[in-house]
Amino acid sequence: MSKPIVAIIGRPNVGKSTLFNRIVGKRRAVVEDLPGITRDRLYEEVAWNDKAFLIVDTGGFQTESDEDIIRQVKKQALVAVEEADIIILLMDAESGLMPSDIELTELLRKYNKKVFYVVNKIDGPKKETKLLYDFCQLGVDLLPISALKGYGFDVLKESIFDLLPEGKGEASEFPKISIVGRPNVGKSTLVNSLLGSERMIVSSVPGTTRDAVDSICSYYKRKYIIVDTAGIRKKGQMAKSVEQYSFLGTVRNIQDCDVALIVLNAEEGVVEMDQRIAGYVYEAGKGAIILFNKWDTVDKDEVSINDMEEKIYRKLWFMRYAPILTISAISKQRVTKVFSMIDKVIAESSKRITTHELNLFLKDALNVKSPPLVKGRRVKIYYITQARTDPPGFVLFTNNKEGISSQYIAFLENKLRERFSFEGVPVRFFVRQRESEGKRKR
């Protein structure tokens, strides 16, 4: 079941990012910082009690004129409106009703979406009557809030909460495979190749994700749901807006899949958008296979497979665990090998290592390299255990949590993969400090 998307739209400087931060409340507990990948992240996973959703901030661009403001806001709003389930149109009480607010309101009337019309920068009931007066001409129900101070936020939160579905929903009967990548890398051709093989039986399944097509595919009696996200670019005039501002459709499908097939264009190599999409897959903790499409057009005398793989891994350094397959979606070269890779990645993602085996591994790793001293004091790791699968997560128990650096975690991950593989899936490490040690330090 896909997590609902709640999108905040509105013109610049109305407080979208402030409201975004208040809704999120705090950063996710275990997300590594990937410089150049996540610094401009537009979304965050949020859980309120037993209800989870994605909150999307559509801000972050600069404008130079009022005319440009309206044009850019409309572009971004179109993307957000198309993909979101719930929309927050945020307006600014201090600057009053603006033409772009009116235009966005008229735009939203055309969609069958739940919209909350929120007027920001109202920090108390005494200011409501005066500051809301201009906005009444919109003819919609208004919610006054202060995203900065929290006034009115509880009412907005409860209203959103009531619209969210309960729990996590039922798991898919078959593995769900999302094909992701930027426009024109060959995603649709790949889908047609996968579904068009003589060895495959295809039946149409109505897609639950807008602008995506889900199909059940059977390959040697093993069934998969193939999700084609190519429809994200159906509206030609929105292409630049999608590429610059939003991966909402891609994010939705990544969150809902078991394995993501990241399609790259061999003629162009890895570009910045490829890095961002791969970064979303990594952050979501999903299994990944990198497909280097259009390999049949590359001059093999100039580029070897080994050189190509190293170039890809240099750009996607955070995803060196993901296998790379060179394919041609048009000629179907090596396309069917994708399925055996998918099966392997799914098995690796659900693999569980016993605590005994893990601690034998930890002993060997510590013999090779111990954590560095902190203020002259030895950092001890007492033991390790696996806490979760999909993706695999491991808990380290130590006497000094701050002494376990990201560099040392990277060392442990490399050693872990040497011993247990986990090919195609990210692994997560959680560091826990013994309570007695924490008290002793204080």
Helix content: 25-40%
In the residues, how many domains can be counted? 3
Strand content: 15-25%
User: How far apart lie the N and C ends?
Assistant: 45 Å
Output the CATH homologous superfamily of the largest domain: P-loop containing nucleotide triphosphate hydrolases
The biggest sheet, with number of strands, parallel, antiparallel or mixed sense and barrel status, is: 7 strands, mixed
Rg estimate, integer Å = 24 Å
Structural class estimated from helices and strands: alpha/beta
Q: What is the succession of H and E elements?
A: EHEEHEHEHEHEHEEEHHEHEHEHHEEHEH
Q: What is CATH's topology name of the largest domain? A: Rossmann fold
Point out poorly predicted stretches: 27-41, 60-65, 197-212, 230-246
Envelope shape = globular
Give a quick precis of the structure.
With 442 residues, the protein is α/β, with parallel strands linked by helices.
Which helices and strands occur, and which strands form pairs?
Layout: E1 5-9, H1 16-24, E2 43-48, E3 51-57, H2 66-83, E4 86-92, H3 99-108, E5 114-120, H4 128-132, E6 142-144, H5 153-163, E7 176-180, H6 187-196, E8 200-205, E9 213-219, E10 222-228, H7 239-245, H8 248-256, E11 259-265, H9 272-283, E12 287-293, H10 305-315, E13 324-326, H11 337-349, H12 355-368, E14 381-388, E15 393-398, H13 406-420, E16 428-433, H14 435-441
Parallel strand pairs: 1-3, 1-4, 4-5, 5-6, 7-10, 7-11, 11-12, 12-13, 15-16
Antiparallel strand pairs: 2-3, 8-9, 9-10, 14-15
Helix pairs in contact: 2-3
